[in-house]
């Protein structure tokens, strides 16, 4: 499947602005800024296991396209969401941001946009297949 693989962060745009807007504490942002996050995706048809490996923890979300699933945010908040797929792009509405992901060649392109009383911020993360 197109998403299956392991990816290592290659570049991030607007990391601080986005994480600050969604309420990630300064110390956590500082620790993660230069860490090469590993994303591991296992796709079996419409079923996904999506893991992000951070220095102190691994966060895993399991979901089926077009079915409500239990999910967790970067900040550890639990919620329910329905992940959709249009073409080769998946979209998930988190409580305070919209996240899209797609594979282009050997790159995983993730875009997260948050909007709130303090403005709007979009983080773009590009990871290479390893």
Task: Name some characteristics of this structure.
single chain, 130 residues, nine-stranded antiparallel beta sheet, two-stranded antiparallel sheet, 2 helices, globular
Q: What can you see in these coordinates?
A:
- The protein has 130 residues and is mainly beta.
- The chain contains 2 helices and 11 strands, in the order βααββββββββββ.
- The chain has helices at 15-21, 26-33, and strands spanning 5-13, 38-44, 47-53, 58-64, 68-72, 78-82, 84-86, 89-94, 97-104, 107-116, 119-129.
- A 9-stranded antiparallel β-sheet has the order 4-3-2-1-11-10-9-8-7. A two-stranded antiparallel sheet has the order 5-6.
- β2 and β3 form a beta hairpin.
- The longest helix has 8 residues, at 26-33.
- The radius of gyration is 14 Å and the shape is globular.
- The mean pLDDT is 91.
The DSSP helix count reads 2
> Can you count the beta strands?
11
Determine the strand fraction and express it as a percent band: over 45%
Order of strands across the widest beta sheet? Answer: 4-3-2-1-11-10-9-8-7
In whole angstroms, the N-to-C terminal distance is 16 Å
- What share of the residues lie within helices? 10-25%
| Biggest beta sheet attributes | 9 strands, antiparallel
What is the 3D form?
globular
**Mean pLDDT rating:** 91
Query: How do the SSEs run, as a string of H and E?
Result: EHHEEEEEEEEEE
Radius of gyration, CA atoms, in whole angstroms: 14 Å
Poorly predicted regions: none
Helix-strand makeup class: mainly beta
């Amino acid at each position: 499947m197109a998403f299956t693989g392991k990816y290592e962060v290659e570049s991030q745009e607007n990391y601080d602005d986005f994480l600050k807007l969604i309420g990630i504490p300064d110390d956590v942002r500082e620790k993660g800024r230069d860490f090469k996050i590993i994303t591991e995706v296992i796709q079996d048809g419409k079923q996904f296991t999506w893991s992000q490996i951070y220095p102190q923890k691994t966060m895993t979300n399991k979901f089926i396209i077009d079915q409500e699933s239990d999910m967790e945010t970067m900040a550890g908040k639990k919620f329910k969401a329905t992940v959709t797929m249009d073409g080769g792009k998946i979209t998930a509405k988190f409580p305070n941001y919209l996240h899209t992901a797609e594979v282009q060649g050997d790159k995983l392109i993730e875009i997260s946009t948050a909007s709130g009383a303090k403005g709007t911020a979009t983080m773009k993360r590009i990871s290479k297949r390893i």
